[in-house]
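TICKET: design request
STATUS: open
ATTACHED STRUCTURE:
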């Protein structure tokens, strides 16, 4: 039945395939006759069989394989446009697994236990635009994961337990506009993490454990317009994280749900085009919060209120819908630009005690 199905499928010019390896349900749709053929209870399809059988596929979904994806695993699938791999336990994606696929536009990988994605896993893919990797277990991202992918527009590593990113993981994707690294375990943004992303516009780093942003971290991203740092562990921001020339295109910054008590006085000098700013859920010192809100008002920057959220309830802190500040005494009206662990603990304890009250306050979004 398998060989008969394959023969018919190829004769109809295969355009879609669903392959479940180990316990397989393969579906083939002929694009000329709109015919679906299916085959059940196949124990296994080899990589050789996969390449030979589905060489005319434009869309492929692989489910539940236990084998690593080797070098040039899809080498004969020159017509492939859409590739999805899910529910697998493959352990490793080798270097050049996705290589020389001239029409591949998007890769979606999810719910896979992977110990490592090797360097140059995505290699020489001239039409690749989207890579989405979600719900994985990848301890770190290697240098040069992407090589010679000139049209790559968006990369997402969402909820993948990433602790660390080596220098230059994205150095060969000159047209990248969107980078999503949210819901991971990152603790630091290094000055080399975003190297050569000169066209990047959207950067999402929310819901990590980031406490340090190194100087010049955003030097290589001059066209950044949207920066999301919500729900991290930032206690201070050094204006030197931006280049000396400033961030001329940066329009939105979200700092909600951190540990910030003040911002350096020169912070807003580096963001002349800023339009929206999210600041609630931080233990601001009252004089510092007043200074921030004065600058926002003077420059017509919209202060956005949000209730910071986290997918990890174990680290979720009670957060008000509007900015709330704390002061050591009512007479203190000068922002000291000094972090106080003592006041921060009091702030969070106070919010926890009166959480219901603060949650009832109105929110803009």
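STATUS: resolved
RESOLUTION: sequence designed for all positions
ATTACHED SEQUENCE:
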């Amino acid at each position: 039945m398998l060989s008969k199905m394959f023969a018919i499928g190829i004769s109809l010019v295969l355009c879609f395939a669903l392959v479940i390896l180990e316990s397989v349900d393969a579906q083939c749709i002929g694009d000329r006759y709109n015919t679906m053929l299916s085959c059940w209870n196949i124990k296994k399809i080899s990589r050789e069989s996969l390449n030979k059988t589905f060489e005319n596929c434009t869309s492929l979904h692989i489910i539940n394989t236990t084998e690593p994806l080797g070098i040039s695993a899809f080498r004969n699938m020159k017509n492939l446009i859409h590739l999805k791999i899910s529910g697998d336990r493959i352990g490793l994606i080798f270097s050049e697994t996705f290589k020389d696929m001239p029409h591949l536009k998007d890769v979606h990988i999810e719910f896979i236990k992977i110990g490592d994605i090797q360097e140059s896993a995505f290699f020489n893919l001239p039409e690749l635009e989207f890579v989405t990797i979600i719900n994985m277990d990848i301890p770190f991202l290697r240098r040069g994961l992407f090589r010679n992918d000139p049209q790559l527009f968006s990369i997402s590593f969402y909820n993948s337990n990433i602790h660390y990113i080596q220098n230059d993981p994205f150095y060969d994707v000159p047209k990248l506009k969107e980078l999503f690294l949210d819901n991971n375990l990152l603790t630091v943004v290094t000055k080399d993490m975003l190297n050569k992303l000169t066209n990047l516009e959207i950067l999402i780093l929310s819901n990590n454990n980031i406490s340090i942003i190194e100087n010049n971290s955003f030097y290589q991203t001059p066209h950044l317009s949207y920066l999301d740092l919500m729900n991290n562990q930032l206690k201070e921001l050094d204006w030197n994280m931006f280049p000396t020339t400033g961030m001329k295109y940066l329009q939105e910054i979200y700092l909600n749900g951190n540990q910030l008590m003040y911002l350096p006085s020169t912070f807003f000098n580096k963001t002349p085009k800023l339009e929206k700013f999210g600041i609630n859920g931080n233990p601001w010192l009252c004089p510092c919060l007043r200074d921030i809100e004065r600058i926002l008002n003077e420059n017509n920057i919209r202060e956005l209120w949000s209730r910071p959220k986290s997918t990890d309830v174990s680290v979720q802190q009670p957060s008000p819908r509007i900015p709330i500040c704390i002061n050591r005494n009512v007479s203190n009206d000068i922002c000291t630009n000094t972090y106080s662990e003592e006041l921060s603990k009091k702030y969070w304890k106070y919010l926890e005690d009166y959480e219901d009250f603060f949650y009832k306050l109105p929110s803009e979004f």
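CLOSING REMARK: The radius of gyration is 25 Å. The helical segments are 2-11, 47-53, 286-298, 341-353, 355-359.
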